[in-house]
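#data-curation
PF: Archiving a pair of folding outputs for the training set. Convention for this channel: one message per protein, sequence first, structure tokens after, nothing in between. First:
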Amino acid sequence: MTKNIMIVGVGGQGTLLASKILGRLFVGRGFDVKVSEVHGMSQRGGSVVTYVRFGDKVYSPLIDKGEADFILSFELLEAARWTEYLRKDGILITNTQKTNPMPVITGTAVYPDGIEDNIKGLGLNLDAFDALSLAEQAGSAKAVNLVLIGRLSKHFDYPEEEWITVIRECVPEKFTEMNLKAYKLGRES
């Protein structure tokens, strides 16, 4: 059976590193893994989506609407934008941080209010928390990705040491300890 994880965020938030960590973890467990990176205007803070699919045999890297077992969102508006991709029994894990998209920055739009309540109103399994504060506690606002990976890891019955090993393999050495701290804060929160 194939499992599907969507990672959604804004360019520069670390979605690609998160997908690399997950891909390597699942390959290490013997799964067939497909990772697809779909870039929007990532270099300008636009929407970025990455698909991670794993199972005995995975034929396509893409996830269709209603197929995601997990959506890992770096930002509330991105979480709302992709809810229709979540399975009925799927889990949406999101950072409660708000990152203004370009139309809000330029003044042609307003960041919508009540996003978290609207998502809850859809009856989805929502796990919304302040991942940014935990990342800052670990040493860098850029570690939100590892906080989210830590939170996601709680839903997998894999030894924590496997996660730690893969993080060590994927993160530059000078940032390893800070990223491991972020992962642990997300896992324990």
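PF: Second:
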Amino acid sequence: MKRGRKRHQTTVEMQMTPMIDMVFLLLVFFMVAAKPVVPERDIPMGLPGQVAQEEVVDIPDEARVIIEPGGQIVLNEQSLDSPASSSLPELRAVLERFRLSAENAKSEALVTLAPHDTVPHQRLVDVLNACAEAGIKGVTLAGGGDE
């Protein structure tokens, strides 16, 4: 008697080619989907500018503006603008820098005006306007004299 057929036992092999293809596809997907690292963002960079001081720095606490009889403006022994100029751009620029340096030093910008007795009132008003345009609020008037 014949016994049943011998069954051929087939061995099951794992197909490696589709698995390798799938791994490469996943690798490409994650490489494209990942955000690239930008090394320039890691570098701390500070732009030049004005930095407030942590401690009070000794700067001249007051600017002295003398208005001479001819209308010439003298700020801390330095002549500025012409006597005919009513807008006083040089004085305004210097006062703005003075105010900014005082703010950075955490102090108040103070200006003392010392007009001569014969100076027209309009010249004093021009200087006050320059102080206001520079943002200086601490303005005082000194007595006139022969300064």
